[in-house]
Amino acid sequence: MVKVEVLGMILAGGQGSRLYPLTAKRAKPAVPFGAKYRIIDFVLNNFVNSGIYSIYVLTQFKAQSLTEHIQRYWRFGTFLEDHFILLVPAQMYRYEELGPVWYRGTADAIYQNLHLVHNHAPMAVAIFGGDHIFKMNIRHMVEYHYEKRADITIAAYPVPVEEARRFGVLQVDEEWRITEFQEKPQNPKPIPRKPHLALASMGNYIFRTEALFELLEADAKESASSHDFGKDVIPRALKEGYRVFAYDFHRNPIPGQEGPNLYWRDVGTLDAYFEASMDLVKVVPEFDLFNPEWPLRTANLFSPPAKFVHETGERVGRALNSLLAGGVIVSGGTVRESVLFRRVRVNSYSLVERSVLFDDVEVGRYCRIRNAIIDKDVKIPPHTEIGYDLEADRARGFTVTPEGVVVVPKGYRF
Question: What SS3 state is found at 247?
Fold first, then answer.
């Protein structure tokens, strides 16, 4: 195989149980987001926009829709050997050594595929999660990694100290070399000279290739290990004196974007997913989908334009502060602060507000929907209310989140 400078490896095998029922039939990275994308698209765009074109995507749970999405729509062609995005399913590659086991953790997923790294002999391996919403110039982080002569560089996100208990927290010295790693500490240590902030690990790493092999081979021999980068590999690296540095995500430059890079969201729960979706419909959103200097590619499905029809009395087709994909028809209804995916239809006299409607949802006449996530291919009959009586919604079998968001599963029939 052709040698590459930086090899990208995306961890896309997560089960996503906290996103159920959105993950009932799809992997977490395949969950739709932002009217036309899937969650995996954002990290893929980060690699491609950063000029890193040699990428493996490691899959495991319910990977069919994710596999189809990447195979159909993320292709470079066949002329450049170092331009590829290839799916790597869990396949027990080390069966003779480990026995019949799937990926046992984030580190083990890479360990079971070290032969791919060996084949390309890269200087560095960029290991990123496939389930976050963010923009990142990964090339800038790679250059920082080289400048520091680091064995490992960890992308870090400054968060208020009081919020840091939910994350792995990095303690750094004046050079931003990591001196300590705390997994969800009760009393997080702040950044030097910034007592109100702590450094949270984003779970995105750059490894010097030789260090990656050494650490993963040692971890694989530890029967008590959970084979996780944050819990096992990074603490081992610090204990054994490897050069481990933090990279400040806020300083990451995005072409066409002014100011610090502040937006990173883990959409691992239904409420977090809903909140991130509502971020997109703000008048001036924190996460801009419309930056031409940082294009966000996805499936080109050749949908017709969105359409708004009827303007008679209260029968007015309109959408306010919302994102609408191609093929949407708002036929005499009102849409406010919502995200509508392809071919959604909102019929006359209906109101949809603060909601996310996936592909092929149809809202009948005189419906009222608020604070809802409605998965694909749901047909809502006339005069239906969702999000107004949570007990009635639970009685229908819908999921109601702690924040009161109602989730209707894929293909539900009333």
Answer: strand
pLDDT at 14 > cutoff 80: no
The whole-angstrom separation of Cα 130 and Cα 149 is: 26
pTM, rounded to two decimals? 0.94
84-113 per-position pLDDT tens digit: 999 998 876 665 566 667 778 899 999 999
Q: Which amino acid is at 290?
A: F
The answer to whether 143 is a known ligand-binding residue is: no
Beta bridge mates, 315 = 312
Q: Which CATH architecture has domain 307-408?
A: 3 Solenoid (2.160)
Alpha helices by DSSP H, listed for 126-233, are: 138-147, 209-220
Average pLDDT, the chain: 93
Supply 24's token pair: 């009932």
User: What percent helix, strand, coil does the chain show, rounded to 5?
Assistant: 25, 30, 45
| Residue 96: per-residue pLDDT | 57
Across the range 299-315, mean pLDDT stands at 91
pLDDT tens digits, 31-86 = 999 999 999 999 999 999 999 999 999 998 888 999 999 998 898 766 677 889 99
Known binding residue 3? Answer is no
Residue 109, both tokens:
């997923």
CA gap 218, 211 in Å, rounded: 11
Taking the C-alpha atoms of residue 62 and residue 75, their distance in angstroms, rounded to an integer, is 22
228 pLDDT above the threshold of 80: yes
**Is 96 annotated for ligand binding?**
no
**CATH assignment of 6-268, given 3.40.50.720, 3.30.1120.10, 3.40.50.300, 3.90.550.10?**
3.90.550.10
Cis previous bond, 29, omega within 30: no
Annotated ligand binding at 129? The verdict is: no
> Rounded CA gap, 158 and 214, in Å?
30
The annotation status of 184 as a binding-site residue, yes or no, is: yes
- Calculate the CA 303 to chain-centre distance: 24
Calculate the CA 298 to chain-centre distance.
14
Q: Where in the chain is the domain with CATH 3.90.550.10?
A: 6-268
Beta-bridged to residue 245, according to DSSP, are 153, 177
Q: How far is CA 176 from CA 39, 142, 162, 341, 370, in A?
A: 30, 15, 21, 42, 45
pLDDT digits (tens, 9 = 90+) for 171-207: 998 899 999 998 888 888 888 788 899 999 999 999 9
- Determine how β-strand 37-38 pairs with β-strand 32-33: antiparallel
